[in-house]
Amino acid sequence: MTAVAVHHLVTGPQDAPVVVLSNSLGSTHTMWDHQAEALARHFRVVRYDTRGHGQSPVPAGPYDIDDLADDVVALLDTLGVEQAHVVGLSLGGMTGVRLAARNPERVDRLVVLCTGARLEPSSAWHDRAATVRKHGTAAVAEAVVQRWFTAPYLDANPDTKAACEATVAGTPAEGYASSCEVIATMDLRPDLPAISAPTLAVAGADDRATPPPFLQAIAEGVQDGRLLVVPQSAHLANAEQPETITPAIIAHLTGASP
């Protein structure tokens, strides 16, 4: 499939090192709101909506993980960026892993959060895709957001819960379903040893979707990896614990001590 021109937003100094932020399944570039301002003090920050999400085009499926990586390469080419840091969460993390393995010359440093090299059983992702195609993304929105955050966080932040459910429900059904099929079919485990970019793998201690052992496997599988497990955080750990995660991202990308 041909790469699509994804919707993107660029902030920060024109001459600073570039960092690309890649969103999770069912979210948009706004999922990085907690990080964007702090990152823009150090980097030229490129946030984008994965194909089929937000304001990006919704090509007909099926998609695969190489399509998502191709979109990032096309975005970098459009912006005239030869090499960038890549930070991705969940589906965005999978995109970053594939890109770092396949196009190592384009990735300087890598941060993956709350993701996995293989998410089984694949049948669960095909089932979710079928549900969304039949009933729309609103049918899964509440259950998805319950996995994104810990219960105490959701209880304390009802406005965030409502906003996130609306974001999931607003995701085009074909984009969401085809992205589920990306996860169903991808297996990035053979890619890990090829990744030379220094890699920080961040796990939410309470993440049921991609628990800490998934991130440990990535940290141990790449050539230069480190694991950070963040307490009191679930799948959207960057939003639940930005005070811990944002400085860790900046330290890793600048090469400072963790």
Automatic annotation (TrEMBL):
It is an enzyme of class 3 (hydrolase). It comes from the Bacteria. The keyword ATP-binding does not apply. GO terms for cellular component: membrane. InterPro entries: AB_hydrolase_1 (IPR000073), AB_hydrolase_fold (IPR029058), AB_hydrolase_sf (IPR050266), PcaD/CatD (IPR026968). Gene3D superfamilies: alpha/beta hydrolase. Keywords: Hydrolase. One of its GO terms (molecular function) is 3-oxoadipate enol-lactonase activity. Transmembrane segments: none annotated. Residues 17-240 form the AB hydrolase-1 domain. Its EC number is 3.1.1.24. The keyword Ribosomal protein does not apply. NCBIfam families: protocat_pcaD. PANTHER family: AB HYDROLASE SUPERFAMILY PROTEIN YCLE, MONOACYLGLYCEROL LIPASE. This is 3-oxoadipate enol-lactonase. It comes from Nocardioides immobilis. The gene is pcaD.
